[in-house]
């Protein structure tokens, strides 16, 4: 391993410690009540180390949220390729989405739960909407859409966002793959068929 790689690894580790400390404090206190000393003591780093990476706690929060939004956008592009739909064939985008939230549960529980950050939630919904748009745009267009594209995208993206938030609030009682399967089936069947109102 080169010296540069060693330094990068050390920087990532330090930043990870600061981020984890900050998010754990956000679960215990209001954002406005958290001071830099709280973060550095929880992360076991000194103030100069904190300021070597971040300007203040607002900069720290902004950089964390921007990183997660970038990850969501990458998910939308990486999982945008068509797949063969089926009631037991998991949509890879839903799998990736729920696994991403599970891997970053502390962050999303704080931002969407404790902080109830509506701006981030709106941006998250927009990222999900983009992924659905990419998916629909890549499909065979021989069959005309039965509803307006804008309404379809809004309905689906807000529904998914709501389910993700509820899943986090319920402490992720179901596994990411279980949730991905449920959304796959809802997407495939639609509400009426999923409830058994109409024949399949």
From TrEMBL:
Annotated ranges, domain HTH tetR-type: 12-72
Q: Which UniProt keywords apply?
A: DNA-binding
PANTHER family in alphabetical order: ACREF/ENVCD OPERON REPRESSOR-RELATED, HTH TETR-TYPE DOMAIN-CONTAINING PROTEIN
Asked whether the UniProt record includes Electron transport among its keywords, one would answer no
Q: Which InterPro entries match?
A: Homeodomain-like_sf, HTH-type_Tx_Regulator, HTH_TetR, TetR_C_Firmicutes
Q: Which organism is it from?
A: Paenibacillus oenotherae
DNA-binding region extent: 35-54
Q: What is this protein called?
A: TetR/AcrR family transcriptional regulator
Q: Enumerate the Gene3D superfamilies for this protein.
A: Tetracycline Repressor, domain 2
* A Pfam family assignment: TetR_N
């Amino acid at each position: 391993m080169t010296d540069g790689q060693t330094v990068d690894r050390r920087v990532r580790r330090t930043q990870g410690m600061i981020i984890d400390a900050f998010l754990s404090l956000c679960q215990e206190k209001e954002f406005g009540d958290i001071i830099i000393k709280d973060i550095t003591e929880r992360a076991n780093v000194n103030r100069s180390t904190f300021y070597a990476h971040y300007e203040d706690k607002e900069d720290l929060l902004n950089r964390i949220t921007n990183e997660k939004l970038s990850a969501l956008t990458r998910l939308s592009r990486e999982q945008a390729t068509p797949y063969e739909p089926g009631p037991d064939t998991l949509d890879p985008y839903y799998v990736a989405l729920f696994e991403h939230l599970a891997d970053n549960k502390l962050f999303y529980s704080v931002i969407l739960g404790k902080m109830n950050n509506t701006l981030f939630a709106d941006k998250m919904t927009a990222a999900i909407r983009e992924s659905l748009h990419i998916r629909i745009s890549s499909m065979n267009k021989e069959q005309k859409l039965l509803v307006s594209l804008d309404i379809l995208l809004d309905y689906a993206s807000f529904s998914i966002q709501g389910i993700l938030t509820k899943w986090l609030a319920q402490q992720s009682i179901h596994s990411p793959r279980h949730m991905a399967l449920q959304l796959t089936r809802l997407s495939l069947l639609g509400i009426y068929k999923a409830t058994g109102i109409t024949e399949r």
